[in-house]
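**Archive record**
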Amino acid sequence: MSTKRNDKSQIKFKHSVMVVLIILMFLFTFFYSPYNIVQNVEAGKYGNIVPTTSELQLLDKINENRSDNGAGPLKLNTTLWWVARAHSQDMIDYDFFDHSSSEQGQFNGVSFSERVRNYAEYENSYIGECIAYNTWGIDVEWCMSAWKNSPGHWDIIINPNFEEIGLGILVGDWDGYSNSALYTADFGGASVSVELFTDETDIEFSPEFPYEGQQVTISTTIYNLGVTDAYPVHIKFFDGDPDTGGLQVGDEQQIPHILIQGESAMVNTIWDTTGSSGEHDIYVVVDCDNLISETDEGNNKAFNTITVNDSIPSPPISPISLWKGWNLISFPNMVANTSLGYVLGSISAEYRAVQAYKSSDVSDPWKHCYIEKPSHMNDLCDLDNKMGFWIQIIDPNGAELSLNEESPNSSQIITLNRGWNLVGYPSSIKRLRDDALNNLTFGSEVDTIMHQDNATKVLKNLEDWEYMEPGKGYWMHATCDCEWVVENLVY
C-alpha cells in the first residue's frame, strides 16, 4: 500500500489543487463466480447513469465516515461517475493498475488529471482519486476498510473541500483472476447547488377529459436547474394540496438515473378516478421528504386542475393548423360524406395535392389527388377518419382545416397490415403513446410509430412519453396483421 501526492498542488492551491492517491492491496487467491455489471461504460457519457447497488453502498459508507469527521456529504456527479467507471473498465480491459490510463484504451495514456479535466470536462481545479482492487469479487466493506486504514486515502475521504464524487466498481478478468473487482473513486470540489423544479404547465393528463371510473395517466417533467447533479430524485402525486390534507395518488416515483444539472426527466403515475367526479387540483411534489439539499426549497410543488365528468363527455375538436408545404395529418370526426372535396371543403383553395398510402393494395399502395390533373387521373377520391394522409398547402400563411361533424363516441377499428401503414387517430382525446395503442403492445404487434414534428416539420419516432393527438397522421409499422382498437372515452 502506498500514497502519492503531487507536491506542486500545494504551491498552486488557490488555482489548482490535485491530490492523487494510489492504494495497492495484496492479491488473494479466492475465486468465485463472475459478477456482471450491466451498464455500458462508454455509452451515455453524461446521461442516464444508474448507480449500482454496490456503488451506492460504498457512497453511503464514505458519507458516513465524512459525517463522523465533520465533512459534508458528497453529491453525485455524472461526469465524475462516468470517468470513474471508464477508468475501472480500462484497468480491466488492459490488465494494469495505475492512475494513468492505458496507451491502448480510450484515454490514450493520459494522466489522472488530464482524464478527469480534459476527457470528462470537469472544470473544478480541486480533484482527487482513490483506486483499489481485489480478486474475489465486489467487497464494499473491504474496500472501505482498506481506504480508511491508509492515512493518505483517509485524508481524501474526510477532506471537506471535496463536495462531489463519481464511483466505478466493475468486475472482470484481470491479471489472470476471473472475478477481480476494480474500484475507482473520483472526487471533485465544485460548488454544490442542486435546484429541482416543476411547473403546472408540465403536468398533463391522459385522457384530458376523463369520466368517473377511468384510469388517468398523470405525467410531469422534473428539471434540475442547479449546477450539481441530483440523485435519488423522488416524486409524489396528490389529489389536493398535501400540506392541507391532500391524498397521495398512485405510487411514489423515482427518476432511475442521476438527474444531470441543466437537464430534465419525465415521470408519471396512474390515478383511479372511481368515486372522484368533479374538479380536482392534482399536485406534484419533488423531493417530498427533503432528502436533497437545494438552493430553493420553495419551488418543488405545483398543481394543475382536471375535471372528472360523471358522464361521458364530448370534448371539442379544434381546427387542424397546417403550414405551407407538406403536412402529415388526419381528422378524428365522424363524416357522413367521405368525398375528398367535401372533407377538405374549408381549405378548397389552399391546397395543391393529397397523398395516402393504402397498405392493403400491395401492388400500388400510394394513392394521389392533384388539383391540376383531370379527375380520371386521380385515384384518391375519399378520406375518412381512420386514414393518415399527406396534404400540400400552397397558401404562404398556411391554413385551418375545420370539420363541423361530431367527434367519435365509440371505438374505431383500424386494420393494420404487416409492414408500414399510414393511419389516422380517430379520437378527440390525446393520449400517451402506449395508452393510445390500447389493445396493442408497443414492441410486439407494433414496433415503430412515426409522426411529423411540429417544430422541425420532419418525421421522428414517437416516444413513450409523447402523445398521439387528434389531427395528426402516423406511420405505424406492424410486425403482423392485426387490428388496432382506438377507444373513445370508454376503456
User: Anything to note?
Assistant: Helices lie at 8-11, 53-68, 78-94, 112-119, 140-148, 151-157, 340-343, 433-437.
